Write a sequence for this structure.
């Protein structure tokens, strides 16, 4: 393995590039991006060694696709067409059903590994790339059995460099679970931001009163709409299910307030406090 | 000013004690708490100089009440009865209408200052107390005109020590605004935690997939039900209003998903991204 091509050199692609380069400086990292400014930035920040184009993919040992999930579904088959027969191609998006479906009958399906390295921040672009972002984090691999064995090994070498824990899952289970622990959190934060901003139009003083609790709860509302609109589109059914349950829980909480059932409110909160132990497991 | 009594020596009371002691070591800090374990802890951690009881309040120059807001409403009139005629009494809870109402006709109303130092973490008890927690944060003072002028000055001296920005507001405006930027965030986080925990009963794998985004959004669901149930109770009307708007926004987002209106979803997120600039003002 010598030439690694990263397509989409933003937060995720850039962070992967940094880790690989830092820990395996003998590898060459090539960057491809539709945004030439980002590409120049990545070059100046030494996140990539060289800019490249799709035609160069014929020299790739590994390709890592880190672009919005709708573009990934369109581009992945074309990328597989371009790479050598022994190249590994991975995609790192937050949905896995559509991408696996897009290449299920591709002649080079065995060159592809579907992955979701679960890490990130609310920022985007190459400047947002962080060394060690994936250290100790979970990487979900889907349909591992459909990838050539030697290419699985090549992928695992990269993930080992990045310090990731590997879990195997089918794409349907991935998309369903991730809707709860990631996609719903984003909607919850965006709608909290919206509710408070709408109020602020009339009440200019309100944000002076916002503390660190609000900042933390609403943080994901800074996330990129370019990245997240296609995620919600592809995972629409699961996301609607999580939203239904979330709205039901909020509505029940509201009805406890309306009926002065503060005992139930206390008990709910006490029981949800159990999230402490769960989150300790995450950190 | 020599003797400061802090009633309720947890996260907020303990943090106030630490700041005052660090910056004005000549002051004596006395702690009063119904939880004797917390009191012993506070003594061992040198958060307070001495344990005290309500009868000792006759020696107080200043009293700071940092207990759940329902207990505060009950105790505040009794505390005012006990303190000397020239003592300052403050209360630091997250609601202000009920506490101001509770003492509106008290003969020592002018000894009382209603405040809300807006800072905190999701933890509780004296071990959660942090030095510098209030540095640069906002402190809302309500009905300042009802407090004796020299006691206003005494209070401002303490807040200056703590490095707080002061804003003046009437209790009704405080409770309405704080419902948006604080109380709603807590419910949003608790219900997110509930939705995901309920799923986890059947799907044990789910938490392995939770990343830092989920951890941040759900953080406030670790908060104390003892502290928060009375807050929701006292601020019920405002909280219900914020919940109504939040649920409406979530329901609209869901209907955009259901009708494949991804343009609107994109536009909403792009517009809510403006929260970045607002949050920069908070940090």
């Amino acid at each position: 393995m010598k030439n690694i091509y990263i397509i989409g050199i933003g937060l995720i692609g850039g962070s992967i590039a940094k880790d690989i380069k830092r820990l395996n400086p003998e590898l060459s990292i090539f960057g491809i991006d539709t945004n030439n400014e980002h590409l120049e930035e990545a070059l100046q920040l030494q996140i990539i060694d060289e800019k490249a184009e799709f035609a160069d993919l014929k020299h790739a040992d590994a390709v890592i696709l880190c672009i919005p999930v709708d573009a990934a579904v369109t581009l992945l088959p074309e990328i597989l067409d371009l790479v050598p027969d022994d190249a590994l191609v991975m995609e790192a998006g937050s949905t896995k059903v559509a991408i696996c479906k897009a290449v299920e009958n591709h002649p080079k399906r065995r060159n592809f590994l579907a992955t979701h390295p679960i890490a990130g921040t609310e920022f985007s672009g190459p400047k947002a790339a962080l060394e060690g972002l994936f250290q100790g984090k979970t990487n979900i691999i889907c349909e591992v059995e459909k990838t050539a064995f030697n290419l699985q090994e090549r992928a695992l070498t990269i993930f080992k460099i990045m310090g990731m824990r590997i879990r195997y899952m089918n794409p349907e289970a991935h998309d369903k679970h991730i809707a709860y622990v990631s996609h719903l959190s984003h909607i919850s934060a965006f709608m909290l931001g919206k509710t408070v901003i709408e109020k602020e139009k009339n009440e200019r003083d309100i944000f002076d009163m916002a503390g660190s609790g609000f900042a933390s709860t609403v943080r994901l509302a800074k996330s990129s709409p370019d990245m997240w609109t296609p995620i919600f589109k592809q995972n629409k059914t699961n996301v609607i299910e999580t939203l239904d349950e979330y709205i039901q829980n909020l509505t029940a909480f509201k009805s406890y307030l309306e009926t002065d059932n503060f005992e139930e409110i206390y008990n709910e909160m006490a029981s949800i406090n159990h999230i402490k132990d769960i989150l300790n497991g995450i950190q």
